[in-house]
Specification:
four-stranded antiparallel beta sheet; mainly beta; 11 strands; globular; seven-stranded mixed beta sheet
């Protein structure tokens, strides 16, 4: 059973930085793609960034390009999200997602709260 545990959220002022971590277990993560999504109050969950272990390619939402960086440590089954120049509109619960490449079945963590004050 794949399990994902996020950490690193918190309260930060606008312009500040945070680094989120997601630790995975229970799966062969070298065959997975992992991503970060976020959900703000009264809004739908939205894609933030994705990393593919094979080749290391990354994809970002336009709203975070140039400010956020996704990275991973395959040996630790971990993925990270470095968030710089944070804005109040980045306030949300951030979720880690994992799925096998080519598979639509996703695993989700419980989320970590990020609050950016103006």
């Amino acid at each position: 059973q794949v399990q994902l545990v996020e950490s690193g959220g918190g309260l930060v002022q606008a312009g500040g930085s945070l680094r989120l971590s997601c630790a995975g277990s229970g799966g062969t993560f070298s065959t997975y793609t992992m991503a970060w999504f976020r959900q703000a109050p009264r809004k739908e969950r939205e894609f933030v960034a994705r990393i593919y272990w094979s080749g290391g390619s990354t994809v970002y939402a336009d709203s975070v390009k140039g400010r956020f960086t996704i990275s991973g440590d395959n040996a630790k089954n971990a993925v990270y999200l470095q968030m710089n120049t944070l804005k109040p509109e980045d306030t949300a619960t951030y979720y880690c997602e994992a799925r096998k490449v080519g598979n639509t079945n996703s695993y989700w963590g419980h989320g970590t709260q990020v609050t950016v004050s103006s």
